[in-house]
Amino acid sequence: MKLVYLLSLLPFTVAEVFPQTKNSKSPTVIPFQKGESLPISCISRNIDNGEHKFDEKDNIIYESFPVCQETGEPFTLKYGESGVKNCTITLTDEIYHLFQLYIHQDVPFSCRLPYSKNKDGISIPLTLNFRGIIETSHLDIDTTMNILVHSGGEQGSIISSIGYSAGANVSRYIIGDSMPIRFHINWFDEYHLSNDLGHFDLSLGYDFNIIVYIIIGVALISGLLVYALMYGVFNKKLIKELGYKPGYSTELGIDKRD
What we know:
- It contains three helices and 17 strands.
- It is an alpha+beta fold.
- It has two domains: 165 residues, no CATH class; 48 residues.
- The chain has an eight-stranded mixed beta sheet with strand order 3-2-6-7-11-10-13-5. It has a three-stranded antiparallel beta sheet with strand order 8-9-12, with helices on one face. It has a two-stranded antiparallel sheet with strand order 1-4.
- The chain is elongated.
- About 10% of the residues have low confidence.
């Protein structure tokens, strides 16, 4: 009864699909194929205060990622393809002042990727966290950018994504400079990361971490040591003070010494 009572205290939740349409329904997925181009669109902001720009229907305006000098087109990802891509952008007056806001973390560099090929407007957030230092005359920016994307596996969709600076150095930029960004792109199937020495899969279909076994082993050894210590202390006390010693012939495991 106590177990039933305790279980009744646990909160019950209902799992829902993410993302959802405006009608709170599961979106129809038209899967991407490996190598298909994924456009990146980012929130358009006012350079004075970083506030969103809105259209006549009060919808937030999104614009394509800045144009890469290497291709003459906005930077895009390839579905399911990991690798390194370079994109050199021109720091116009507007983009330069936006990077001031991004680096100072006044506003996020908020972008998005399409959830699937369906043209229903469903998207997955992609926030690019550029690291740097704001100086009076210039910006010091770490332009080595890691992008992690989790795909929906066989579903051919995108689950989540994030981008962050991961270089060891910064470079100096002023208005009008060309700023090369080196994107290190890594795709993962759903929530799984690559296998390594501390993380592996067993054929049972369950995901195990070797740390779990270490914790269990330490707990068992600690328990045995505590038991041995307490047994020794208890045994000496019986023999020295009470005249008893542990035995195996009685129900309680104790017999009297003659």
